[in-house]
Every structure is written in C-alpha cells, then in structure tokens.
Amino acid sequence: MQSFITEFKAFAMRGNVIDLAVAVVIGGAFGKIVSSLVDNIITPAIGLFMGGVDLSGLAAEVGDASITYGVFIQSIIDFVIIALVIFVVVRIMNTLHQKEADPEENKKSEPSEEVVLLRDIRDRLPKG
User: Fold this and answer.
1) For 11-22, how does the pLDDT look when each residue is reduced to its tens digit (9 = 90+)?
2) Does domain 2-124 have CATH number 1.10.1200.120?
3) Whole-number pLDDT of residue 41
C-alpha cells in the first residue's frame, strides 16, 4: 500500500500534471471571458447587423416542443471565436519564440574571436 501512495504522490507532483491543472483553470476562466465577449458584444452586434434579431432567442415551435436553434447558432459562434483567439495567441507566441531563438542562432553561426584571430594569423603568414 505504501508503494501505491508513493507512486501516486510522484505522479501527482510531476510538472506535467501541475501544468495541466493550471491550464484547465486558466482555460475555464478564459472560456468565461470569451463567452461574455460573444454573449454581450458580438451577438448583439450581429443582431443589429441582421436588423435587430436576437440570435439566442431564435426558436421554432413544433407541436409542444420548442427547438431553440438560436442557442445552437450561438454555440457555433462561440466555437469559431474561441478557435480564432487561440490561433492568434499561439501564432503570436510562436512569433515571439522565433524572435528569441534567432539571435542565438546568429551568435552560433558567427565564428568566435579566437577563430577570427587564427584566421587573421593564417592569412598573414607567407604562402610558400
């Protein structure tokens, strides 16, 4: 039983598990922000563009059932906006990461001072 607890503790304290937990919490908060953006800003703007129609209120009555397809349209808009925002954030992070990596590559491609000095000495030696 002791080894099970020890293994579980090692598993739970690994960096990947903690990183995942932080990502889930931040993702949940980010999802609320995006949902608020869509519900309170974008959907009303689209509704104004469409002549004052509130998308979330769109529904069709079929017998006793109410099919709320406006909520479905709202969910599609949420998904597209979330995907777009994540794409933009990842793209910006990749661009910043490449800018950080480029100076290091330039330094590695330039010869050291010793190599430059040795080349200079070699070039000054008489060729014979």
Assistant:
1) 777 767 778 888
2) yes
3) 83
